[in-house]
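Notes from the 1:1 (GR / supervisor)

We went over the backlog. Supervisor wanted to see one worked example end to end before approving the batch request, so GR pasted a single chain during the call. The sequence is below; no edits were made to it. Supervisor asked that the structure be written out right there so they could see what the output format looks like.
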Amino acid sequence: MAATERAVALAAITGAHGVRGEVRLRLFAESLASLRRHRTFGAGGRMLELEALREGARGPIAKFRGIGSRSAAEALAGLELVVPRSALPDLAAGEVYWCDLEGRAVVTSDGRAAGRVVAVANYGASDLLEIERPDGRRVLVPFTAEAVPEVADPLVIDPVWVDAV
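Structure output shown during the call:
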């Protein structure tokens, strides 16, 4: 990965699975297929080559080349699996990667500067944009067509979300 290219996390290693070096994953990508299309991942300053990937009873399980024991797998816990942004597939019209929203300027539909997207999250109900306002305060805005009528650069949001804080 080029030093200037943005790394995008597709999963995180949550711990070891079994005694043969497999690891449990927390998936950030859309599906196992999204992860499977990549063969190598950056992880804590090293490259890991994917040997196998399957769905386990409690989530995805992966096996990486050269990781052959439980202790080696445990040493990977907490690392994110990243790929260069350029390795992600093109999107259909109207779709956007979360990583492309972070850092984007935000304006209200009536033209006022509303801040900048500092994070995107989903806590179970819906996707949320965390926007840092010009005064430094932060507000969570649902990433819905009603709250964010234009996914452009800058993002356009309904003024009610900025004025409510």
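Supervisor's comment: The CA atoms of residues 13 and 25 lie 5 Å apart.
Batch request approved.
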